[in-house]
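Schema walkthrough. Field components (list of strings):
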Amino acid sequence: MPTPRSTALVDHSFVPTRAKLIEVAAFLDRVERYGAADDFRCEALRRAAKVLVDGKPARARRILEQLSDPSTKPDRVSSGKAALGAWQKPAKR
Amino acid sequence: MRYIEPHGHMVSRTTDDYQAMVTAGCAAVCEPAFWAGFDRSSADGFRDYFRQLTDYEPARAAKFLLPHFSWLCINPKEAEDLALAADVLAMIPEFLAKPNVLGIGEIGLNRNTRNELKVLEDHVALAVKHDQLILVHTPHLEDKLKGTRLILDLLASHRGVKPGRVIIDHVEEHTVQLVLDRGFWAGITLYPDSKSSPPRAVDMLETSGHDRIWLNSACDWGVSDPLAVPKTAFEMRRRGHSAEFVDQVLYQNPVRFLSQCPKFRLPPT
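Field assembly_structure (string):
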């Protein structure tokens, strides 16, 4: 792996990354304002955001794992063509 | 710079895209069979699609001097209908001898259902029977990790599958190592809003190795960028990776995997 100046890496990535973080913050404010903060996807996003500041490595991998379906058996039927982005525990029947 | 676009749904793209890709250094494009955005109503719809992939689209690409290859299957998004899937699977061998067909793909899972798994199993058996390369789609978002594990277990349980002849696509940080550790090739898909971005793709190359990985745009009718692969070359160079590193990942790696099919031949550069 090359060793670019660490400041160069920050120079070209900091502002775009800062913008994405503010987008996350604004999204969480917005869903509160619209009364949608308890949507399971918003809750999952807030839980995942804690990984950003826990001081441990592999944050991207751990956030993806946290948002994933933890079950291991194939589903009996499809719940629709599209995934939703966060896993929701199925309601008990 | 030269690169291969190993996964592009070109039937959904314009001739402007072909021109832009060739201008950026694209040396070949490979097109896996895909979902049209709606479910086809019969196997005849697939017959027409396979004709498009094996006759019409290579001719359209040739107008831009771009070699075009294809993969055939019924996509996992349409695999819930077992009767339709059986009809399509029975038709695929008719097209395997076409000069631009590289193998079976993109097969895999979408919502990780029993029916999808059954159709995947049938595709794998077909590929093994006809000695075809395999291109596997892994599910989206929250379904990817579970689906990747199910796919890896299914492939491992089939004695005729050679991992070096299978590429498992759309890996992300939580699945790339699972795939590589089992001996398969891994594909990283560069999308604006999902899958991977160019910086994350380069992160994965830096942390998981780059021997058995290719990059693709998977450009289709949705939000996607047919120039995502060459744009990732820029991210590599900006971080200080050499031109040789870029060439290996974007050109030599896909050529090495795809050349396992004797029909994958490129004109001399």
